[in-house]
Specification:
This protein is of the alpha+beta class. It has a domain of 111 residues. Helices cover 60% and strands 6% of the residues. Strand 5 and strand 6 form a beta hairpin. Helix 7 runs antiparallel to helix 8 and helix 8 runs parallel beside helix 10. This is DYW domain-containing protein. One of its GO terms (molecular function) is RNA binding.
């Protein structure tokens, strides 16, 4: 709906509630919603919780156009706030790039003694999983769920289980799974996917085999899990079984199946899958099936175009939570208050790793540098600085949990494995693709990610 034009129709002033409700249902333009808000203030309708709630919800539907910012200002000024309004704002913030604000808003909701309902916690948990300190926040929310009596609500329990699984805490997720009096497909799929992404494929397969009614999500989780754990033959066998059961594959399952074909050199199966895709007119990543020729030349061309067009590459950033505070690092970071101590600690770790045979992996570094310069370039990656900070900030033997916004590089992956062996430290690293659990010199991804 285009922006509203002043003056507003007389019907809005004569029958304000009905007219505003009708306009709110149709309007998606923030400027138009602001005019409706002005009319609601003029008629006193803004003091009514029902139309005020609908206005907030409408504003939150256009977060990128300034709707969320305006909704927050409106929310702070409303005196008729109800549970629906609080849930609306928590949900909008959890869907945005401000998940920490959703948690802060929930704390304010508790201090105001506002009643909760079954939808409050799923929205809040969605925000928790996006935080670097996801685990402690989730555990606190879990205690509140029990306190408010929503632990038996399937929707809430599923959200909690999914967050534990996505945080790599499959043990906590499984305890919750076993205690749930009622499970649906989402419950089973969340647990299976959590096991698969944590490298515990045997446990995932056990649950998968016990699942009575499997859907495309169940099959896709198992197929993708097999591919991520280098079980390419098993992935194709599962893909075939899925089609036999007349479950139509989605884009993710087909992508994983093609990846398995590529690793096995299964040309005939790859052609068959390609035909399957064409018949259904499905759209996949165009990179699939393409042969990368002269990648060095292509990378230089791409970098040149990025500079010409002013495109900035997303910088790698690693976060670690210690004693309730989140600490972020970028490559070569010296902005942290303890930067000197962190760098000295990393140099100490590096000297010990070299004694154990560590040599920096620079194969993936597509830069025209001497080998010594390449080693220096990968030597101060953000996850390494986060690990060093974890060493100086926690007791020996404490698990180190790190969240990275990009994929972990080969050198940082190798370093984390060696540190877990030499220092007997468990390291849990979540990158943008999956979880890596480093224990005794091995990783849950089996070196495939």
């Amino acid at each position: 709906m285009a922006a509203l034009l002043l003056p507003l129709p007389n019907s809005v002033l004569l029958r304000p509630q009905a007219a505003c409700t009708s306009l709110l249902d149709k309007c998606s333009d923030v400027e138009g919603l602001k005019q409706i808000h002005a009319t609601m203030v003029k008629t006193g309708l803004v003091l009514d919780a029902v139309p005020a709630s609908r206005l907030l919800a409408a504003l939150c539907r256009s977060p990128d156009d300034g709707g969320l910012t305006y909704a927050l200002l409106l929310f702070e000024r409303l005196r008729c706030r109800n549970t629906f309004m609080w849930n609306t704002m928590i949900r909008a913030l959890s869907d945005s790039n401000l998940p920490e604000q959703a948690v802060i808003l929930y704390c304010q909701m508790r201090s105001d003694a506002m009643p909760h309902n079954p939808y409050t916690f799923p929205f809040l948990l969605k925000a928790c999983v996006a935080l670097p300190s996801a685990l402690p926040e989730t555990q606190q929310v879990h205690s509140h769920i029990i306190k408010h009596g929503f632990a038996s609500e399937v929707y809430t329990a599923n959200s909690l289980l999914r967050v534990y699984a996505k945080s790599g805490c499959t043990g906590s997720a499984r305890k919750l799974f076993d205690r749930m009096p009622c499970r649906d497909a989402i419950t089973w799929n969340s647990m299976i996917d959590g096991y698969a992404k944590s490298g515990r494929l045997e446990m995932a397969r056990q649950l998968f085999d016990l699942m009575e009614e499997k859907n495309v999500v169940s099959w896709t989780s198992m197929i993708t899990g097999c591919v991520e754990n280098c079980l390419f033959k098993e992935a194709l066998e599962l893909f075939g079984e899925m089609l036999v059961t007349e479950v139509e594959a989605d884009a993710t399952a087909l992508t994983s199946a093609l990846t398995a074909c590529a690793h096995l050199g299964a040309l005939d199966q790859g052609r068959w899958i390609h035909t399957y895709i064409k018949k259904r007119q499905m759209q996949l990543d165009p990179a699939l099936g393409c042969v990368l020729v002269d990648i060095w030349k292509q990378s230089l061309t791409t970098r040149k175009l990025m500079r010409e067009r002013g495109v900035l590459k997303l910088p790698g950033c690693s976060s670690i939570s210690v004693k309730g505070s989140v600490h972020e690092f970028v490559v070569g970071d010296r902005s942290h208050p303890q930067a000197e101590k962190i760098h000295l600690e990393w140099e100490s770790i590096l000297r010990r790793l070299r004694k154990e045979g560590y040599v920096a992996s620079t194969d993936q570094l597509l830069l025209d540098l001497e080998e010594e310069e390449k080693e220096a370039a990968v030597g101060w990656h953000s996850e390494k600085l986060a690990i060093a900070f974890g060493f100086i900030s926690t007791e020996p033997g404490t698990t180190i949990r790190i969240v990275k916004n990009l994929r972990v590089c080969a050198d940082c992956h190798a370093v984390s494995k060696l540190i877990s062996k030499v220092y007997r430290r468990k390291i849990v690293m979540r990158d943008r693709a999956r979880f890596h659990v480093f224990v005794d010199g091995t990783c849950s991804c089996k070196d495939y990610w």
